[in-house]
Specification:
The complex is a heterodimer of chains A (270) and B (309).
Chain A: E1 2-11, E2 19-29, E3 34-39, H1 45-53, E4 60-65, E5 68-69, H2 75-78, E6 82-85, H3 99-106, H4 121-132, H5 151-162, E7 169-173, H6 181-198, E8 202-205, H7 209-214, E9 218-223, E10 226-232, H8 233-238, H9 241-269
Chain B: H1 2-27, H2 34-51, H3 56-81, H4 85-104, E1 108-110, H5 117-129, E2 134-137, E3 140-143, H6 144-169, H7 171-181, H8 183-188, H9 193-219, E4 221-223, H10 230-244, H11 250-273, H12 281-308
Antiparallel strand pairs in B: 1-4, 2-3
Classes of the chains: A alpha/beta (270), B mainly alpha (309).
């Protein structure tokens, strides 16, 4: 279970570029729940994901994952519990190293790495079997440098890597945003399969309302650093893309009203 | 012929330098100029220990340890205080200049009448083939002790190359290569990348100090200036190796660095023999590395231009 309480984060505090990326965000995600997070640009959805991943230091708040207080854990220490897939398909794999080596690195996620052989024959056999499940014909090309593969293939492998050892939490950061639609739908199919088979607790940030509607059991909408809507259970199942769109419009209208009221007040009283 | 064998021997000794530069420059993309200080540091430690009667093997091992410490200092300054790699290296290199003078007590320590690794090799040769023995090498008559020295150096380099290759294939070595390739990815897989960089730069300078230590024993003195230009020298060796070996397999790349170091030393020996002014050596080395760094980019550009036509 992931328990996020009262997170605050301001970037560039005290400058003209100040951004209140997270403002009192609290959220609890149950085990084996698949949460889709939607939001406009700059809504704080990726910041929230990165806060859980540990890429920056929070201003305040706490994060517990399965009873561990990970608020002060370094990014690499959190990797014991968390699997991640990045937006950029090139971020999740080491381009100059072979497919086999990349997977072997993932097979030791968060574990002690000693002077044992990095790619023993027993591991290669397991690698082949699991790569075969991708149906991409990559199982016979384990020696190929991963940089020679397409973005979609690399993203599929990153997914496999992030879930190689069952993570307590899987973080997906708009992991199909940089792919063409056909590849994206393949990667989404694979995501669904891996998450369902492993009963993984998943936190997926996405820009696609269609994905949020189709996948998972919970939708969260963020806006200006806050969680604005949280749908689950039957309510989530009834959600359709037009419903989400109209909610977004509503959020935007409220903003505009705020701005216009501020302008009006300014014009009359300042 | 004696000159040729001597050049190959020095080339093999400097292959350790090339392997060190390979680790920092190619694995981590870390232009580590600490090399110039740690090369001398290794020579200084070994020379001053041998002069006080310490066993040459112990003195050589301690030089390696000294290099590890120097490299770790650079890595620590870079990762802990976020100082850029080049500047971190310059700081440690500058500091090492004073340290080296303190270690040696003067700017030059001669080893001529001392027991070194190389006098061991020679006495081994005397035991096996006798004093003043000459050996026949493809029609050339050469002193047997030179051949034995070459043989032992080859063995040492092969052992260290294989050790390095083995290390890079272990779990921790694979993680080290991944750190240089994509640090974001490997952090997400639980590796402390800062620690990895410190470890890698330390290892690199360990090899470099070892190279300095062996060169001091071969040439019979340690000098506080002997590290100058060594980073570019090592880089030249690595680049020649890469040009020879287009394959990206790790074993071949390591072998390439070793062969590159020997070839580069031979090229220099030939150029000096042809009457090149020794004062121009560093200038020409620098120009060579400059060209080697620029040409691949230019070739790509001309290819692109051709394609766009």
């Amino acid at each position: 279970m992931l328990e996020i309480s009262n997170l605050y984060k301001t970037f560039n505090a005290g400058t003209t570029n100040e951004v209140n990326a997270l403002q009192d965000v609290s959220l609890t995600i149950d085990d084996s729940s698949f949460v889709c997070v939607l939001g406009t640009n700059g809504s704080g959805k990726s910041t929230l994901l990165n806060a859980v991943a540990g890429t920056f230091i929070l201003d305040s708040g706490s994060i517990f994952l399965n009873g561990n207080n990970i608020t002060r854990w370094a990014e690499n220490k959190r990797a014991r519990l968390i699997g991640r897939v990045f937006q950029n398909p090139f971020s999740g794999t080491a381009a100059g190293m072979s497919i086999g080596e990349n997977l072997a690195l993932a097979a030791k996620r968060g574990r002690k790495r000693g002077l044992g052989w990095g790619l023993p024959a027993s591991v290669v056999r397991e690698l082949k079997e699991r790569v075969k499940t991708l149906n991409m014909g990559l199982e016979d090309r384990l020696d190929t440098p991963i940089g020679k593969l397409s973005g979609g293939q690399r993203q599929a492998l990153t997914l496999l890597m992030s879930s190689w050892l069952k993570p307590d939490l899987l973080l997906l950061d708009e992991h199909t945003a940089a792919l063409d639609p056909k590849t994206a739908s393949k990667v989404i199919e694979l995501t669904e399969k891996i998450v369902t088979e492993g009963k993984l607790t998943t936190f997926m940030v996405t820009h696609s309302m269609q994905q949020a509607v189709n996948l998972g059991d919970r939708i969260i909408m963020m806006h200006q650093g806050k969680i604005r809507y949280d749908f689950r259970g039957e309510e989530k199942k009834r959600m359709k893309v037009p419903d989400l769109l109209s909610l977004f419009d509503e959020l935007r209208r409220k903003d505009q009203i705020d701005i216009r009221v501020a302008e009006l007040l300014e014009a009359n009283y300042v | 012929m004696t000159l040729l064998i001597g050049s190959i021997t020095i080339g093999l000794v400097l292959a350790l330098l090339a392997l060190g530069i390979f680790i920092s420059f190619r694995i981590f993309d870390f232009p580590d100029i600490t090399a110039e200080g740690s090369f001398t540091f290794g020579a200084a430690i070994t020379a001053s220990l041998i002069v006080t009667g310490v066993n040459p093997v112990v003195a050589t091992v301690l030089a390696f340890a000294g290099g590890l410490v120097a490299g770790a200092a650079t890595g620590f300054i870079h990762t802990r205080f976020k100082i850029n790699p080049l500047l971190s290296g310059i700081l440690v290199m500058t500091a090492l200049y004073s340290v080296n003078l303190h270690v040696m007590g003067k700017s030059n320590v001669p080893l001529l009448s001392q027991k070194t690794l190389f006098t061991w090799f020679e006495s081994f040769s005397v035991k096996i083939s006798g004093e003043e023995a000459m050996a026949n090498l493809i029609g050339w008559s050469v002193p047997a002790r030179d051949l034995w020295t070459l043989f032992f150096c080859t063995v040492i380099i092969v052992i260290f190359s294989l050790l390095l290759l083995w290390f890079f294939r272990t779990n921790i070595g694979t993680a080290m290569r991944a750190t240089g390739d994509n640090d974001q990815m490997i952090r997400a897989l639980g590796v402390n990348t800062k620690g990895m960089i410190i470890f890698g730069v330390a290892l690199s300078n360990g090899f470099i100090a070892l190279s300095g230590s062996m060169l001091a024993q071969f040439q019979g003195f340690a000098d506080v200036q002997m590290g100058i230009g060594m980073m570019v020298w090592g880089l030249a060796s690595v680049i020649i190796g890469e040009a020879l070996i287009s394959e990206k397999s790790l074993g071949l790349v390591i072998a390439g660095a070793v062969i590159g170091a020997v070839l580069f030393r031979l090229l220099v020996a030939i150029a000096l023999r042809w009457g090149m002014n020794p004062n121009d050596l560093k200038l020409i080395t620098a120009i060579f590395v400059f060209i080697a760094l620029v040409v691949p980019g230019l070739m790509k550009q001309t290819k692109k231009i051709k394609l766009s036509r």
